[in-house]
Amino acid sequence: MKxxxxxxxxxxxxxxxxxxxxxxxxxxxxxxYKVMYDGDGIGLAAPQVxxxxxxxxxxxxxEEIPQIFKMINPKIIKKSPDMVxxxxxxxxxxxxxxxxLRYEWIEVTYIDENFxxxxxxxxxxxxxxxxxxxxxxxxxxxxxxxxxxEKSKIxxxxxxxKMELENAQKMSE
Length: 173
Ligand code: CO
What we know:
Order of helices and strands: HEEEEEEEHH
Number of strands: 7
Largest sheet: 5 strands, antiparallel
Helix content: 25-40%
Mean pLDDT: 96
Low-confidence stretches: none
Strand content: 25-35%
Structural class: alpha+beta
Bound molecules: cobalt (II) ion
Shape: globular
Strand order of the largest sheet: 1-2-3-6-7
């Protein structure tokens, strides 16, 4: 499993609902968790490893919320009336941060790794992380929530950094 980077087209596709619950699904979730952890991320969605299916892993690595979330078919069922500003990075957009608006809290239903239905109300970083990862399942990146001119500025910055990195790699070969 490798992290897929922008602008790979799998990142802009809407993912399919999961209908088969088997051991393979659980091992995929576990593998996704490892990739996320090794990449120092706090969340990862299946399309980010090239799998166009509705599953995410989240671990915000806080003492307050020590739980690791492995979520199948996560769905937001309630949203706060208020939005908050959120500065976000993404493992598929290395080197980039973008500030966007997110719901302050949300309620999410999902199926856990034991195939039980769960519902959770999340706020703060956990709520933001869920929204970011669920967006991935709908083919949406955090930069897609920026205004058009801000998005093109950020993409330019991303391409510049990517080129610098590729040149540095060539030099060291
Ligand atoms: Co992301």
